Amino acid sequence: MNVIEKLNSIQNKEMTAKENVEHFIKVIDEKNDSINAFVEKNYEAALKQAEKIDEKIANGEKVGCLSGLVFGIKANINVEDLIVSAASKTLENYKGSYNATVIEKILEEDGIIIGLTNMDEFAAGSSTETSMYGPTENPAAIGRIPGGSSGGSAAAIAAEMCDITLGSDTGGSIRNPASHCGVIGFKPTYGLVSRQGLLDLSMSLDQIGPFANDPSGIALALNTIVDYDSSECTSLHSDIDFTSVLEEKSLEGMKIAVCNDFIEVTDDKINKVVNKAIQKLVDAGAELVEVSFDHLELCLPTYYLINYVEFFSATRKYDGRDYGYRIEEVCGDEVLRRIKMGSLISQKEYSGKYYKKALQARSLIRNEINAMLENVDLIVGPTVPKLPHKIGEELTPMEMYAYDILTVIANLGGIPAGSIKAGEVEDIPVGLQIQAKPLDDLKIIKAMSVLSNL
Ligand code: GLN
Q: How far, in Å, CA of 229 to CA of 192, rounded?
């Protein structure tokens, strides 16, 4: 049963919201000791909320568009009364004092929040190994990292611990773990989803988005969380119905592009599997063309420079006075590296040298992406260029950053991008990344639906 079918069966009284919650509590209790996807549990409130929803349904009252569906939320999104630590000792005792806008929307639509999921400390990573709660297992490739930084959200879906999860994606943190765990992850166009209540990593790049096991879960979540937010100057208007393409079986009339520059940096075995998925899109009627991307080597340095500077500025509030500890005193190596680098680059004498150059490079990259997309509907290719490493294997920072080469592009350009399972290499899932023009998010959901309906 996919997510929308479950929603219908709750609304038609074939199953209750409470049964749905109880089922997931059982699964989490069985699996979480070994998977470590959830770091905060909200069972009592979830059960109470489910009972209320069931009552409304029994009385024939109107219920929301997510009635009874169970959500896991990345631990950097504010949920009232839960410990929103961003997996950092800095905030180990910080209780969410309000609900992020996305949480308000989910609750208004009768979605149920069962807990918070594990992540890299402050979302700075690609493996979920830097969490103060310890690493998350990859349920689809035991012994390996689930990817990151939203590794807990991806693993919770792969282990079927809830219907939908939310993550945040600054340079790939939704798509990377979706790829490694074999689930669907989606980063909307920058500005479509409110960031109010998200703990910033790099605010000009951060975007909240959903994970699910099938496109209907992604579409239902987007229908609720995509909305204009008048308090954000970067917010965009949209009235897309993401469920409108779920039945699609054809891509007739769509032009999809592959980019050799992306293929060249990717493991051959991954390319082979991804190509098979692309062939399925062609078989469904899409026209395949080739495009090129000239500045791939600029993407990681540009991304990390901007990330360091914006993260440094975002962390100045963690000075140990209002809440939590002083970040520099308790944080892990990667977070400290970013703070130190960000502080250095932000110094006046260096600003022209690094940050301004990074902003210029970002414009160049954005123009390049828009040019690539000008005559095509979608760019398709690998999500991550290499397979996930074994948990605990020591990687240099540069090796860790190398996971992000194909995902940072969408954040630098503000374009929508998603990852869906293409297949497996040595029993390890591999994702197909699908990118589109700003506000063409629906075309990605359409391609994912066609793949799922084959
Ligand atoms: N791996 C990237 C980083 O460490 C992306 C993180 C993210 O998207 N939150 O910055």
A: 9
pLDDT (tens digit per residue) in 363-421? 999 999 999 999 999 999 999 999 999 999 999 999 999 999 999 999 999 999 999 99
Which pLDDT score is estimated for 322? Answer: 85
Question: Is 357 tagged catalytic?
Answer: no
How far is the C-alpha of 312 from the C-alpha of 411, rounded, in Å?
Answer: 19
Phi-psi category of residue 20: left, alpha or beta, with phi > 0 → left and psi -120 to 50 → alpha: alpha
User: How many whole angstroms separate alpha carbon 133 and alpha carbon 383?
Assistant: 27
Other CB atoms within a 10 A radius of the CB of residue 60 amount to 7
Alpha-carbon gap, residue 91 to 82, rounded angstroms:
12
Catalytic residue check, 231: no
pLDDT of residue 352: 75
> What pLDDT is recorded for position 353?
84
| 244 flagged as catalytic | no
Ligand 1 site, residue 307, Cβ cutoff 6 A: yes
Residues in the chain: 454
Q: Which two tokens stand for residue 208?
A: 């909240």
Distance CA 23, CA 230 (A): 38
Catalytic residue among 126, 149, 168, 216: 149
**pLDDT tens digits, residue range 12-27?**
999 999 999 999 999 9
